[in-house]
Amino acid sequence: MKQRYILPALLLLCAACQQEEWAQPEADSSDAIRFAAPTITVEELTRSTFHDAFPTGGTFGVLGYCVPYQRGSDTEMDWASGSANWGNKSGNAFPDVFFNQAVTYNGSACTYDYNNSGGPRKWYNTTQNQEAISPDNYRYTFFAYYPMDDFTVESPTNATTRGVPKLTFTMPFAETGDVATTTLDDKETPDAMVSVVYNHLRTTGNVRFNFSHIMTGLGFAVNNYNYGGDDETVTVKRVTLSGNFTRSITIDFSKNTNEDGFYTYSGTYPGTYVIYNNEEGFAIAPNSSVPLIGDKHLLLLSNATDGTYFGENVKVHVEYTYRGEAKNASAERPTQFQPRAGVRYTAQLNFVGETFALNFIAAEDEFWEDGGDSDVSIQ
């Protein structure tokens, strides 16, 4: 079997920094920490973009680090280690630069108000920080998360506490409820993203975040593979996805990206997503297709660590008519289908004669199976 490894978006975090126009006035532009217009990673293989450009008006949170504490102290800063790489000082690091700083993108530039100062924060310098040692060589590391209000900073707990970031994103749905009677509004789910810029020098210029998706996209297509007359038409009236869905993801940056515990999942939320619902139905003629019924992609968390992925007892349910007879069909996620973060998939609802089959494929019509190219179906 041909092997293909599409890494989760969390493993593709990168730092890309360049100069950009700053809309917020500042007396000495080279002294202020500025954020360039953020970008978003787009995986070419799977077209795995939900937001393909950072949304205008969007606000992301930032944790910023530079000068660590002295070893064994929670108050004295180790000014000589400001120039050390992140890996050499992270154990004593605290968010001395930014703690849960709100930054807003207005469509052309990023702005923020540091500590109600009316403007941005300055880089370390010998004028304001006489203890600083060669501050132009200081290396800054920044962690960003969007949307800011949908993330919880688990660690560190405040701006003076030692700790590498641990961030939790939680879906906007309650843990309690009934699967059948709780209707889930997919519009409430944000396109959650994270980014990291490691070891940034002041002389490099503006800090640019390249965000990566942590969600999985899922759309639904209908294929009528029957050949014949109008009596072979399939009319789809309702499509739903229901179950107990994965609710939270925690990202622990104290661990390596390939280490157990780098990301963990917890909790579920019950309910039903209504993909399509129309009493008259959508008629799909023989030998034709509907590429995206309901005109939507759900954004879901996929728990690959324990193998539950979208959640527990998650099922696709279809109500349709064929040859004048009302029919119902349901299918669970095939065990071979193992959805990844940052990838957009299509659930294909296939009708062949009296048979209903469910296929999951990545974008660009690439059938997805664990590590290979293969049709995944369930009847």
TrEMBL record:
InterPro entries, per database record: Mfa-like_1 (IPR025049), Mfa-like_1_N (IPR042278)
Pfam (any one): Mfa_like_1
Protein name in UniProt: Fimbrillin family protein
